What does this fold into?
Amino acid sequence: MPEDMLIRLPEYVNPRVFDRGLDYFRNNFIEPPERVSEHKWVTRALGRRVYTVSLTFNPDGDDEWHCDCPYDGPVCKHVVAACFAVLRAAGDKYPGVTRSGDLYKLPAFESRKTLDQLFEVLNKEELIGFLRKKLEQDHQLASVFESEFLYRLPEHQKSERYRRIVSKEVRTAYRNRQFAEYPEYEYFEDTGGIPGELMDHMGWLIDLSEKHREENRPEEALLICKAILEEVPVSLGELVEDGNDYYELPVADELMEPAAGELYKIAESGDKDLQGNLFDSIWNMFPDEKLHVGDVPGHMLRAMGRSAADSNRGERLLHLMDRLINEFRNGDKAIIGEHQVLEIKIEYLQHLGREKEAVEVMLAMKDDPEFCLMLVRHYIDKKQFAEAKKLCLEGLKKADAGDNKTISLEYDGSRSTTWYKLLYEIAEGENSPSDMRVWLEKLIFDDYRHMEWFRAYKKTWPEAEWPREREKIIARQKKRKDDFFIDHFLADIYVEEKLFDRLEEMLKDRACNPSDFNSICIYAPQMADQRPEGAGNVMQEAIEAYAAENVGRKYYRDIANKLRKMSKWRGGRERARKIVRKLIEEYPTRRAMKEELEQVFSDRVRFM
It folds into this structure.
Protein backbone atom coordinates (compact mmCIF):
# COMPACT_ATOMS: atom_id res chain seq x y z
CA MET A 1 0.00 0.00 0.00
CA PRO A 2 1.22 3.56 -0.63
CA GLU A 3 1.29 4.47 3.07
CA ASP A 4 3.50 1.45 3.83
CA MET A 5 5.91 2.51 1.14
CA LEU A 6 6.05 6.06 2.50
CA ILE A 7 6.89 4.74 5.94
CA ARG A 8 9.82 2.83 4.43
CA LEU A 9 11.04 5.69 2.24
CA PRO A 10 13.41 7.28 4.79
CA GLU A 11 15.37 4.02 4.85
CA TYR A 12 16.33 4.49 1.21
CA VAL A 13 16.16 8.24 0.58
CA ASN A 14 18.72 10.87 1.43
CA PRO A 15 16.99 13.28 3.89
CA ARG A 16 17.74 16.23 1.61
CA VAL A 17 16.24 14.40 -1.38
CA PHE A 18 13.20 13.52 0.73
CA ASP A 19 12.65 17.18 1.67
CA ARG A 20 13.02 18.31 -1.94
CA GLY A 21 10.56 15.65 -3.08
CA LEU A 22 8.13 16.91 -0.47
CA ASP A 23 8.58 20.46 -1.76
CA TYR A 24 7.96 19.17 -5.29
CA PHE A 25 4.65 17.76 -4.16
CA ARG A 26 3.65 20.81 -2.11
CA ASN A 27 4.24 23.15 -5.05
CA ASN A 28 2.30 21.03 -7.54
CA PHE A 29 5.33 20.11 -9.66
CA ILE A 30 3.83 16.63 -9.92
CA GLU A 31 0.76 15.82 -12.02
CA PRO A 32 -2.23 13.97 -10.53
CA PRO A 33 -1.28 10.29 -10.91
CA GLU A 34 -3.19 7.88 -13.12
CA ARG A 35 -3.94 4.36 -11.94
CA VAL A 36 -3.06 2.18 -14.93
CA SER A 37 -3.59 -1.19 -13.23
CA GLU A 38 -4.63 -2.58 -9.86
CA HIS A 39 -1.22 -1.95 -8.32
CA LYS A 40 0.50 0.49 -10.70
CA TRP A 41 0.34 4.29 -10.85
CA VAL A 42 1.93 6.62 -13.39
CA THR A 43 2.50 10.38 -13.18
CA ARG A 44 4.77 13.11 -14.54
CA ALA A 45 7.10 15.53 -12.76
CA LEU A 46 8.28 18.97 -13.87
CA GLY A 47 12.07 19.32 -14.05
CA ARG A 48 14.50 20.41 -16.75
CA ARG A 49 12.01 18.55 -18.84
CA VAL A 50 8.94 16.48 -18.02
CA TYR A 51 9.92 13.20 -16.34
CA THR A 52 7.72 10.11 -16.22
CA VAL A 53 7.42 8.32 -12.89
CA SER A 54 5.81 4.91 -12.30
CA LEU A 55 5.12 3.26 -8.94
CA THR A 56 3.99 -0.33 -8.39
CA PHE A 57 2.70 -1.43 -4.97
CA ASN A 58 2.88 -5.22 -5.09
CA PRO A 59 0.75 -7.12 -2.56
CA ASP A 60 3.86 -8.92 -1.26
CA GLY A 61 5.45 -5.57 -0.36
CA ASP A 62 8.12 -5.83 -3.07
CA ASP A 63 7.44 -2.34 -4.39
CA GLU A 64 8.93 -1.04 -7.63
CA TRP A 65 9.59 2.42 -8.97
CA HIS A 66 10.99 4.03 -12.09
CA CYS A 67 11.80 7.62 -13.08
CA ASP A 68 13.52 8.59 -16.33
CA CYS A 69 15.35 11.54 -14.76
CA PRO A 70 19.20 11.41 -14.72
CA TYR A 71 19.50 11.24 -10.90
CA ASP A 72 22.14 8.66 -9.94
CA GLY A 73 20.81 7.52 -6.58
CA PRO A 74 18.48 4.87 -5.19
CA VAL A 75 15.36 7.09 -4.97
CA CYS A 76 14.99 10.51 -6.61
CA LYS A 77 12.88 13.45 -5.46
CA HIS A 78 10.39 12.83 -8.28
CA VAL A 79 9.62 9.38 -6.87
CA VAL A 80 9.16 10.87 -3.39
CA ALA A 81 6.75 13.47 -4.79
CA ALA A 82 4.90 10.77 -6.73
CA CYS A 83 4.46 8.74 -3.52
CA PHE A 84 2.71 11.64 -1.83
CA ALA A 85 0.62 12.30 -4.96
CA VAL A 86 -0.53 8.68 -5.05
CA LEU A 87 -1.29 8.80 -1.33
CA ARG A 88 -3.49 11.84 -1.88
CA ALA A 89 -5.20 10.30 -4.90
CA ALA A 90 -5.77 6.96 -3.19
CA GLY A 91 -7.01 8.55 0.03
CA ASP A 92 -4.89 6.26 2.19
CA LYS A 93 -4.30 6.86 5.88
CA TYR A 94 -1.52 6.15 8.35
CA PRO A 95 -2.94 3.40 10.58
CA GLY A 96 -0.76 2.78 13.61
CA VAL A 97 1.84 5.42 12.68
CA THR A 98 2.50 7.84 15.54
CA ARG A 99 5.44 9.71 14.05
CA SER A 100 3.92 10.77 10.74
CA GLY A 101 3.71 14.42 11.80
CA ASP A 102 7.42 14.56 12.62
CA LEU A 103 8.39 12.43 9.64
CA TYR A 104 6.50 14.26 6.92
CA LYS A 105 5.85 17.68 8.46
CA LEU A 106 2.54 17.65 6.69
CA PRO A 107 -0.50 17.85 8.99
CA ALA A 108 -2.70 17.75 5.92
CA PHE A 109 -1.70 14.12 5.48
CA GLU A 110 -2.99 13.06 8.89
CA SER A 111 -6.04 10.89 8.93
CA ARG A 112 -9.12 12.62 7.58
CA LYS A 113 -11.04 10.94 10.35
CA THR A 114 -8.93 12.81 12.90
CA LEU A 115 -9.69 16.13 11.20
CA ASP A 116 -13.40 15.38 11.25
CA GLN A 117 -13.16 14.58 14.94
CA LEU A 118 -11.38 17.89 15.62
CA PHE A 119 -14.10 19.85 13.83
CA GLU A 120 -16.65 18.16 16.05
CA VAL A 121 -14.94 19.12 19.33
CA LEU A 122 -13.73 22.64 18.47
CA ASN A 123 -16.15 25.51 18.98
CA LYS A 124 -16.80 28.43 16.63
CA GLU A 125 -14.61 30.89 18.58
CA GLU A 126 -11.61 28.52 18.52
CA LEU A 127 -11.94 27.95 14.79
CA ILE A 128 -12.32 31.66 14.00
CA GLY A 129 -9.35 32.50 16.20
CA PHE A 130 -7.18 29.91 14.50
CA LEU A 131 -8.28 31.09 11.06
CA ARG A 132 -7.61 34.76 11.85
CA LYS A 133 -4.10 33.93 13.04
CA LYS A 134 -3.32 31.92 9.90
CA LEU A 135 -4.73 34.64 7.63
CA GLU A 136 -2.55 37.26 9.31
CA GLN A 137 0.54 35.09 8.81
CA ASP A 138 -0.14 33.98 5.24
CA HIS A 139 -1.02 36.82 2.83
CA GLN A 140 -1.57 34.42 -0.08
CA LEU A 141 -4.06 32.43 1.99
CA ALA A 142 -5.71 35.69 3.04
CA SER A 143 -6.21 36.66 -0.59
CA VAL A 144 -7.68 33.28 -1.42
CA PHE A 145 -10.01 33.43 1.60
CA GLU A 146 -11.11 36.98 0.80
CA SER A 147 -11.77 36.22 -2.86
CA GLU A 148 -13.59 32.98 -2.09
CA PHE A 149 -16.27 34.79 -0.10
CA LEU A 150 -16.14 38.27 -1.66
CA TYR A 151 -19.35 37.61 -3.58
CA ARG A 152 -21.22 37.78 -0.26
CA LEU A 153 -20.43 41.49 0.11
CA PRO A 154 -22.43 44.38 -1.42
CA GLU A 155 -21.85 44.99 -5.12
CA HIS A 156 -20.11 48.38 -4.76
CA GLN A 157 -17.34 46.90 -2.59
CA LYS A 158 -16.33 44.02 -4.82
CA SER A 159 -14.78 45.43 -7.98
CA GLU A 160 -12.11 47.49 -6.24
CA ARG A 161 -11.29 44.64 -3.84
CA TYR A 162 -10.71 42.26 -6.73
CA ARG A 163 -8.35 44.79 -8.31
CA ARG A 164 -6.36 45.12 -5.10
CA ILE A 165 -6.02 41.35 -4.91
CA VAL A 166 -4.79 41.23 -8.52
CA SER A 167 -2.28 44.00 -7.79
CA LYS A 168 -0.91 42.01 -4.87
CA GLU A 169 -0.63 38.88 -7.01
CA VAL A 170 1.33 40.73 -9.72
CA ARG A 171 3.84 41.94 -7.14
CA THR A 172 4.09 38.44 -5.67
CA ALA A 173 4.75 37.01 -9.13
CA TYR A 174 7.53 39.58 -9.57
CA ARG A 175 9.13 38.69 -6.24
CA ASN A 176 9.00 34.97 -7.00
CA ARG A 177 10.53 35.55 -10.42
CA GLN A 178 13.42 37.43 -8.85
CA PHE A 179 13.86 34.72 -6.25
CA ALA A 180 13.93 31.93 -8.80
CA GLU A 181 16.64 33.56 -10.88
CA TYR A 182 19.23 33.29 -8.12
CA PRO A 183 21.20 30.06 -8.68
CA GLU A 184 22.04 29.55 -5.01
CA TYR A 185 18.45 28.57 -4.36
CA GLU A 186 18.88 24.89 -5.26
CA TYR A 187 15.15 24.33 -5.03
CA PHE A 188 14.85 25.64 -8.59
CA GLU A 189 18.05 24.15 -9.97
CA ASP A 190 16.35 21.68 -12.28
CA THR A 191 13.35 23.68 -13.45
CA GLY A 192 15.16 25.46 -16.26
CA GLY A 193 13.83 28.82 -15.11
CA ILE A 194 10.75 29.78 -13.19
CA PRO A 195 8.02 27.16 -13.59
CA GLY A 196 4.57 27.92 -14.90
CA GLU A 197 2.98 27.05 -11.55
CA LEU A 198 4.72 30.06 -9.95
CA MET A 199 4.53 32.37 -12.94
CA ASP A 200 0.80 31.91 -13.36
CA HIS A 201 -0.22 33.76 -10.20
CA MET A 202 -3.64 34.42 -11.63
CA GLY A 203 -4.34 30.68 -11.82
CA TRP A 204 -6.22 30.43 -8.55
CA LEU A 205 -8.28 33.51 -9.46
CA ILE A 206 -9.20 31.92 -12.79
CA ASP A 207 -10.17 28.76 -10.91
CA LEU A 208 -12.35 30.89 -8.66
CA SER A 209 -13.94 32.52 -11.70
CA GLU A 210 -14.72 29.08 -13.11
CA LYS A 211 -16.24 28.04 -9.79
CA HIS A 212 -18.54 31.07 -9.74
CA ARG A 213 -19.51 30.43 -13.34
CA GLU A 214 -20.31 26.78 -12.67
CA GLU A 215 -22.31 27.71 -9.57
CA ASN A 216 -24.46 30.07 -11.65
CA ARG A 217 -22.76 33.30 -10.57
CA PRO A 218 -21.40 34.45 -13.97
CA GLU A 219 -21.55 38.12 -12.92
CA GLU A 220 -19.00 37.38 -10.19
CA ALA A 221 -16.81 35.50 -12.67
CA LEU A 222 -16.92 38.53 -14.95
CA LEU A 223 -15.82 40.86 -12.13
CA ILE A 224 -12.74 38.71 -11.48
CA CYS A 225 -11.71 38.57 -15.16
CA LYS A 226 -12.25 42.31 -15.65
CA ALA A 227 -10.14 43.00 -12.56
CA ILE A 228 -7.27 40.93 -13.98
CA LEU A 229 -7.42 42.55 -17.42
CA GLU A 230 -7.67 46.08 -16.06
CA GLU A 231 -5.28 45.82 -13.12
CA VAL A 232 -2.36 43.77 -14.50
CA PRO A 233 -1.15 46.52 -16.91
CA VAL A 234 -1.61 49.15 -14.18
CA SER A 235 0.36 47.15 -11.60
CA LEU A 236 3.15 46.36 -14.03
CA GLY A 237 3.37 50.08 -14.90
CA GLU A 238 3.63 50.95 -11.22
CA LEU A 239 6.48 48.45 -10.80
CA VAL A 240 8.34 50.21 -13.63
CA GLU A 241 7.68 53.61 -12.04
CA ASP A 242 9.13 52.24 -8.79
CA GLY A 243 12.44 51.74 -10.60
CA ASN A 244 12.22 48.05 -11.49
CA ASP A 245 13.68 46.83 -14.77
CA TYR A 246 10.89 46.29 -17.32
CA TYR A 247 12.58 43.14 -18.64
CA GLU A 248 12.57 41.52 -15.18
CA LEU A 249 8.82 41.90 -14.69
CA PRO A 250 6.29 39.11 -15.18
CA VAL A 251 5.11 38.85 -18.78
CA ALA A 252 1.78 40.65 -19.11
CA ASP A 253 0.15 38.31 -21.59
CA GLU A 254 0.96 35.25 -19.46
CA LEU A 255 -0.98 36.83 -16.61
CA MET A 256 -3.84 38.17 -18.73
CA GLU A 257 -4.54 35.57 -21.43
CA PRO A 258 -6.27 33.06 -19.10
CA ALA A 259 -8.69 35.76 -17.95
CA ALA A 260 -9.39 36.84 -21.54
CA GLY A 261 -10.04 33.20 -22.47
CA GLU A 262 -12.43 32.80 -19.52
CA LEU A 263 -14.60 35.62 -20.91
CA TYR A 264 -15.71 33.35 -23.75
CA LYS A 265 -16.95 30.70 -21.29
CA ILE A 266 -18.73 33.33 -19.22
CA ALA A 267 -20.55 34.52 -22.34
CA GLU A 268 -21.72 30.98 -23.08
CA SER A 269 -23.05 30.49 -19.55
CA GLY A 270 -24.90 33.78 -19.13
CA ASP A 271 -28.36 35.02 -19.96
CA LYS A 272 -29.19 37.77 -22.46
CA ASP A 273 -28.76 40.62 -19.97
CA LEU A 274 -25.37 39.34 -18.81
CA GLN A 275 -24.24 38.80 -22.39
CA GLY A 276 -25.16 42.38 -23.25
CA ASN A 277 -23.25 43.65 -20.21
CA LEU A 278 -20.26 41.48 -21.11
CA PHE A 279 -20.24 42.65 -24.74
CA ASP A 280 -20.37 46.30 -23.71
CA SER A 281 -17.63 45.82 -21.11
CA ILE A 282 -15.28 44.18 -23.62
CA TRP A 283 -16.19 46.71 -26.30
CA ASN A 284 -15.20 49.54 -23.99
CA MET A 285 -11.96 47.82 -22.93
CA PHE A 286 -10.90 46.77 -26.43
CA PRO A 287 -9.38 50.13 -27.56
CA ASP A 288 -7.05 50.17 -24.52
CA GLU A 289 -3.54 49.63 -25.93
CA LYS A 290 -2.42 48.04 -22.67
CA LEU A 291 -4.62 45.08 -23.52
CA HIS A 292 -3.08 44.60 -26.95
CA VAL A 293 -0.62 41.90 -25.85
CA GLY A 294 -0.30 38.24 -26.80
CA ASP A 295 -3.59 36.59 -27.71
CA VAL A 296 -5.67 38.84 -25.46
CA PRO A 297 -7.30 40.73 -28.39
CA GLY A 298 -8.21 37.43 -30.06
CA HIS A 299 -9.86 36.09 -26.92
CA MET A 300 -11.76 39.35 -26.48
CA LEU A 301 -13.08 39.25 -30.05
CA ARG A 302 -14.24 35.66 -29.59
CA ALA A 303 -15.95 36.56 -26.32
CA MET A 304 -17.73 39.47 -28.03
CA GLY A 305 -18.86 37.04 -30.72
CA ARG A 306 -20.48 34.83 -28.08
CA SER A 307 -22.03 37.75 -26.19
CA ALA A 308 -23.41 39.76 -29.12
CA ALA A 309 -26.98 38.92 -28.16
CA ASP A 310 -28.72 41.27 -30.61
CA SER A 311 -28.27 42.25 -34.25
CA ASN A 312 -27.02 45.75 -33.44
CA ARG A 313 -24.10 44.47 -31.38
CA GLY A 314 -23.45 41.75 -33.97
CA GLU A 315 -23.12 44.25 -36.82
CA ARG A 316 -20.85 46.46 -34.71
CA LEU A 317 -18.60 43.47 -34.12
CA LEU A 318 -18.46 42.58 -37.84
CA HIS A 319 -17.56 46.20 -38.70
CA LEU A 320 -14.82 46.12 -36.05
CA MET A 321 -13.35 42.93 -37.49
CA ASP A 322 -13.44 44.35 -41.04
CA ARG A 323 -11.66 47.48 -39.79
CA LEU A 324 -8.96 45.39 -38.10
CA ILE A 325 -8.45 43.39 -41.34
CA ASN A 326 -8.13 46.57 -43.40
CA GLU A 327 -5.66 48.07 -40.92
CA PHE A 328 -3.49 44.99 -41.25
CA ARG A 329 -3.68 44.97 -45.06
CA ASN A 330 -2.90 48.70 -45.27
CA GLY A 331 0.22 48.28 -43.16
CA ASP A 332 -1.18 50.29 -40.28
CA LYS A 333 -0.26 49.45 -36.71
CA ALA A 334 -2.22 46.24 -36.25
CA ILE A 335 -3.08 44.75 -32.87
CA ILE A 336 -4.03 41.38 -34.33
CA GLY A 337 -3.18 39.49 -37.51
CA GLU A 338 -5.43 39.25 -40.53
CA HIS A 339 -5.56 35.45 -40.39
CA GLN A 340 -6.70 35.40 -36.80
CA VAL A 341 -9.44 37.98 -37.36
CA LEU A 342 -10.70 36.12 -40.42
CA GLU A 343 -10.83 32.86 -38.48
CA ILE A 344 -12.80 34.54 -35.70
CA LYS A 345 -15.13 36.13 -38.26
CA ILE A 346 -15.78 32.75 -39.89
CA GLU A 347 -16.48 31.15 -36.51
CA TYR A 348 -18.85 34.00 -35.63
CA LEU A 349 -20.77 33.78 -38.90
CA GLN A 350 -21.12 30.03 -38.44
CA HIS A 351 -22.35 30.60 -34.89
CA LEU A 352 -25.05 32.90 -36.27
CA GLY A 353 -26.03 30.28 -38.83
CA ARG A 354 -24.87 32.48 -41.70
CA GLU A 355 -23.08 29.58 -43.38
CA LYS A 356 -23.20 31.10 -46.87
CA GLU A 357 -21.30 34.21 -45.77
CA ALA A 358 -18.78 32.10 -43.83
CA VAL A 359 -18.14 29.96 -46.93
CA GLU A 360 -17.70 33.09 -49.05
CA VAL A 361 -14.94 34.30 -46.68
CA MET A 362 -13.22 30.90 -46.84
CA LEU A 363 -13.53 30.72 -50.64
CA ALA A 364 -11.99 34.17 -50.98
CA MET A 365 -8.98 32.91 -49.02
CA LYS A 366 -8.85 29.31 -50.27
CA ASP A 367 -5.39 29.76 -51.81
CA ASP A 368 -4.13 30.10 -48.27
CA PRO A 369 -3.70 26.52 -46.95
CA GLU A 370 -5.09 27.27 -43.49
CA PHE A 371 -8.36 28.60 -44.90
CA CYS A 372 -8.41 25.85 -47.50
CA LEU A 373 -8.28 23.37 -44.64
CA MET A 374 -11.11 25.20 -42.86
CA LEU A 375 -13.16 24.97 -46.06
CA VAL A 376 -12.37 21.27 -46.41
CA ARG A 377 -13.44 20.69 -42.83
CA HIS A 378 -16.69 22.56 -43.53
CA TYR A 379 -17.43 20.41 -46.58
CA ILE A 380 -16.66 17.20 -44.68
CA ASP A 381 -18.96 18.23 -41.82
CA LYS A 382 -21.69 18.90 -44.36
CA LYS A 383 -20.91 15.58 -46.13
CA GLN A 384 -20.08 17.45 -49.33
CA PHE A 385 -17.29 15.00 -50.04
CA ALA A 386 -16.78 15.80 -53.73
CA GLU A 387 -15.97 19.46 -53.00
CA ALA A 388 -13.73 18.47 -50.08
CA LYS A 389 -11.83 15.91 -52.19
CA LYS A 390 -11.25 18.41 -54.99
CA LEU A 391 -9.68 20.95 -52.62
CA CYS A 392 -7.54 18.27 -50.94
CA LEU A 393 -6.18 16.98 -54.23
CA GLU A 394 -5.31 20.56 -55.25
CA GLY A 395 -3.52 21.07 -51.92
CA LEU A 396 -1.70 17.74 -52.28
CA LYS A 397 -0.59 18.63 -55.79
CA LYS A 398 0.91 21.90 -54.53
CA ALA A 399 2.60 20.10 -51.64
CA ASP A 400 4.15 17.49 -53.93
CA ALA A 401 5.37 20.29 -56.19
CA GLY A 402 7.14 21.94 -53.26
CA ASP A 403 4.90 24.99 -53.18
CA ASN A 404 6.14 27.08 -50.23
CA LYS A 405 2.63 28.36 -49.60
CA THR A 406 1.53 24.85 -48.75
CA ILE A 407 2.25 24.11 -45.13
CA SER A 408 1.80 21.07 -42.94
CA LEU A 409 -0.19 21.36 -39.75
CA GLU A 410 1.47 18.16 -38.48
CA TYR A 411 4.29 17.92 -35.96
CA ASP A 412 5.90 15.22 -38.04
CA GLY A 413 5.77 13.92 -41.57
CA SER A 414 5.88 15.75 -44.88
CA ARG A 415 3.83 18.68 -46.13
CA SER A 416 1.51 16.12 -47.67
CA THR A 417 0.57 14.41 -44.40
CA THR A 418 -2.33 16.73 -43.58
CA TRP A 419 -3.90 16.16 -46.98
CA TYR A 420 -3.49 12.37 -46.69
CA LYS A 421 -5.38 12.40 -43.40
CA LEU A 422 -8.20 14.51 -44.79
CA LEU A 423 -8.46 12.35 -47.92
CA TYR A 424 -8.60 9.24 -45.73
CA GLU A 425 -11.38 10.86 -43.68
CA ILE A 426 -13.28 11.64 -46.87
CA ALA A 427 -12.85 8.03 -48.08
CA GLU A 428 -14.20 6.86 -44.71
CA GLY A 429 -17.21 9.14 -45.13
CA GLU A 430 -17.81 7.75 -48.61
CA ASN A 431 -17.29 4.19 -47.30
CA SER A 432 -14.74 3.48 -50.03
CA PRO A 433 -12.24 0.80 -48.83
CA SER A 434 -10.11 1.11 -51.96
CA ASP A 435 -9.59 4.86 -51.44
CA MET A 436 -9.05 4.35 -47.73
CA ARG A 437 -6.22 1.92 -48.51
CA VAL A 438 -4.55 4.40 -50.87
CA TRP A 439 -4.26 7.10 -48.23
CA LEU A 440 -3.62 4.76 -45.30
CA GLU A 441 -0.71 3.18 -47.11
CA LYS A 442 0.83 6.62 -47.52
CA LEU A 443 0.17 7.53 -43.89
CA ILE A 444 1.78 4.31 -42.64
CA PHE A 445 5.11 5.46 -44.03
CA ASP A 446 4.70 9.23 -43.86
CA ASP A 447 3.24 9.89 -40.40
CA TYR A 448 4.96 9.12 -37.11
CA ARG A 449 1.90 7.21 -35.81
CA HIS A 450 2.82 4.23 -37.99
CA MET A 451 1.02 1.56 -36.00
CA GLU A 452 -2.22 3.53 -35.73
CA TRP A 453 -2.46 3.65 -39.51
CA PHE A 454 -1.21 0.06 -39.85
CA ARG A 455 -4.11 -1.18 -37.72
CA ALA A 456 -6.62 0.94 -39.65
CA TYR A 457 -5.19 -0.44 -42.92
CA LYS A 458 -5.58 -4.00 -41.66
CA LYS A 459 -9.29 -3.46 -40.97
CA THR A 460 -9.92 -2.63 -44.65
CA TRP A 461 -8.81 -6.11 -45.80
CA PRO A 462 -10.61 -9.44 -45.57
CA GLU A 463 -8.91 -11.80 -43.13
CA ALA A 464 -7.83 -14.22 -45.88
CA GLU A 465 -6.13 -11.48 -47.91
CA TRP A 466 -4.41 -9.73 -45.03
CA PRO A 467 -1.22 -11.87 -44.71
CA ARG A 468 -0.30 -11.09 -48.32
CA GLU A 469 -0.83 -7.34 -47.84
CA ARG A 470 1.02 -7.37 -44.52
CA GLU A 471 4.07 -8.88 -46.20
CA LYS A 472 4.02 -6.07 -48.76
CA ILE A 473 4.14 -3.50 -45.95
CA ILE A 474 6.99 -5.38 -44.23
CA ALA A 475 8.98 -5.67 -47.47
CA ARG A 476 8.54 -1.99 -48.24
CA GLN A 477 9.64 -0.95 -44.74
CA LYS A 478 12.76 -3.11 -44.97
CA LYS A 479 13.77 -1.33 -48.17
CA ARG A 480 13.42 2.15 -46.75
CA LYS A 481 15.05 1.52 -43.33
CA ASP A 482 18.80 1.40 -42.78
CA ASP A 483 20.25 -1.24 -40.44
CA PHE A 484 22.00 1.12 -38.01
CA PHE A 485 19.46 0.72 -35.20
CA ILE A 486 16.58 -1.59 -34.44
CA ASP A 487 13.62 -0.74 -36.65
CA HIS A 488 10.93 -0.04 -34.08
CA PHE A 489 8.16 0.02 -36.67
CA LEU A 490 9.05 -3.47 -37.89
CA ALA A 491 9.41 -4.69 -34.31
CA ASP A 492 5.96 -3.30 -33.49
CA ILE A 493 4.48 -5.09 -36.51
CA TYR A 494 6.07 -8.37 -35.42
CA VAL A 495 4.59 -7.98 -31.93
CA GLU A 496 1.19 -6.92 -33.26
CA GLU A 497 1.06 -9.84 -35.70
CA LYS A 498 2.66 -12.28 -33.24
CA LEU A 499 5.56 -12.95 -35.62
CA PHE A 500 7.86 -13.67 -32.70
CA ASP A 501 10.27 -15.81 -34.71
CA ARG A 502 11.09 -12.79 -36.87
CA LEU A 503 11.28 -10.53 -33.83
CA GLU A 504 13.76 -12.90 -32.21
CA GLU A 505 15.88 -12.94 -35.37
CA MET A 506 15.88 -9.13 -35.51
CA LEU A 507 16.86 -8.77 -31.85
CA LYS A 508 19.60 -11.41 -32.15
CA ASP A 509 21.18 -9.44 -34.99
CA ARG A 510 21.37 -6.32 -32.81
CA ALA A 511 21.92 -7.80 -29.34
CA CYS A 512 25.69 -7.33 -29.43
CA ASN A 513 25.32 -3.60 -30.16
CA PRO A 514 25.18 -1.60 -26.88
CA SER A 515 23.42 1.29 -28.62
CA ASP A 516 20.38 -0.99 -29.07
CA PHE A 517 20.32 -2.12 -25.44
CA ASN A 518 17.23 -0.13 -24.40
CA SER A 519 15.31 -1.14 -27.51
CA ILE A 520 16.05 -4.81 -26.89
CA CYS A 521 14.90 -4.42 -23.29
CA ILE A 522 11.59 -3.11 -24.65
CA TYR A 523 10.91 -5.89 -27.16
CA ALA A 524 12.46 -9.01 -25.61
CA PRO A 525 9.90 -9.08 -22.74
CA GLN A 526 7.08 -8.91 -25.29
CA MET A 527 8.07 -12.28 -26.73
CA ALA A 528 9.07 -13.86 -23.40
CA ASP A 529 5.79 -15.77 -22.96
CA GLN A 530 5.85 -17.26 -26.45
CA ARG A 531 9.61 -17.76 -26.83
CA PRO A 532 11.16 -17.66 -23.34
CA GLU A 533 14.40 -19.33 -24.36
CA GLY A 534 14.95 -16.96 -27.29
CA ALA A 535 14.04 -13.90 -25.21
CA GLY A 536 16.46 -15.01 -22.50
CA ASN A 537 19.29 -15.55 -24.99
CA VAL A 538 18.77 -12.14 -26.53
CA MET A 539 18.67 -10.40 -23.16
CA GLN A 540 21.77 -12.18 -21.92
CA GLU A 541 23.78 -11.26 -25.01
CA ALA A 542 22.54 -7.65 -24.85
CA ILE A 543 23.35 -7.28 -21.13
CA GLU A 544 26.82 -8.78 -21.57
CA ALA A 545 27.58 -6.44 -24.49
CA TYR A 546 26.26 -3.44 -22.53
CA ALA A 547 28.36 -4.35 -19.49
CA ALA A 548 31.48 -4.72 -21.61
CA GLU A 549 31.00 -1.28 -23.13
CA ASN A 550 29.93 0.76 -20.07
CA VAL A 551 31.60 1.31 -16.71
CA GLY A 552 30.02 3.11 -13.73
CA ARG A 553 27.39 2.61 -11.06
CA LYS A 554 24.70 4.26 -13.16
CA TYR A 555 25.11 1.58 -15.85
CA TYR A 556 25.33 -1.22 -13.30
CA ARG A 557 22.10 -0.06 -11.70
CA ASP A 558 20.48 0.00 -15.14
CA ILE A 559 21.53 -3.61 -15.71
CA ALA A 560 20.29 -4.61 -12.24
CA ASN A 561 16.87 -3.05 -12.90
CA LYS A 562 16.57 -4.90 -16.20
CA LEU A 563 17.47 -8.17 -14.46
CA ARG A 564 14.80 -7.57 -11.81
CA LYS A 565 12.19 -7.29 -14.50
CA MET A 566 13.60 -10.29 -16.32
CA SER A 567 13.35 -12.39 -13.15
CA LYS A 568 9.55 -11.98 -13.30
CA TRP A 569 9.27 -13.63 -16.71
CA ARG A 570 8.17 -17.23 -16.97
CA GLY A 571 11.42 -19.08 -16.30
CA GLY A 572 13.34 -15.81 -16.21
CA ARG A 573 14.44 -15.91 -12.58
CA GLU A 574 17.03 -18.65 -13.09
CA ARG A 575 18.30 -17.02 -16.30
CA ALA A 576 18.74 -13.71 -14.47
CA ARG A 577 20.68 -15.49 -11.69
CA LYS A 578 22.92 -17.05 -14.31
CA ILE A 579 23.66 -13.64 -15.85
CA VAL A 580 24.43 -12.14 -12.42
CA ARG A 581 26.90 -14.92 -11.59
CA LYS A 582 28.60 -14.68 -14.97
CA LEU A 583 29.04 -10.88 -14.80
CA ILE A 584 30.44 -10.98 -11.26
CA GLU A 585 32.92 -13.69 -12.27
CA GLU A 586 33.90 -11.90 -15.48
CA TYR A 587 34.52 -8.51 -13.82
CA PRO A 588 35.91 -9.27 -10.35
CA THR A 589 37.40 -5.78 -9.94
CA ARG A 590 34.10 -3.93 -10.43
CA ARG A 591 32.96 -3.68 -6.84
CA ALA A 592 30.10 -1.31 -7.65
CA MET A 593 28.75 -3.78 -10.20
CA LYS A 594 28.92 -6.59 -7.65
CA GLU A 595 27.03 -4.48 -5.09
CA GLU A 596 24.26 -3.60 -7.52
CA LEU A 597 23.87 -7.10 -8.96
CA GLU A 598 23.84 -8.80 -5.56
CA GLN A 599 20.82 -6.67 -4.66
CA VAL A 600 18.77 -8.04 -7.55
CA PHE A 601 17.69 -11.06 -5.52
CA SER A 602 18.22 -9.60 -2.04
CA ASP A 603 15.23 -9.81 0.27
CA ARG A 604 16.67 -7.01 2.37
CA VAL A 605 16.06 -4.30 -0.21
CA ARG A 606 12.35 -4.13 -0.88
CA PHE A 607 11.86 -0.69 -2.40
CA MET A 608 14.03 -0.84 -5.50
The first strand starts at residue 34 and ends at 35. Residues 517-598 form one domain. The chain has a mean pLDDT of 82. The CA atoms of residues 122 and 128 lie 10 Å apart.
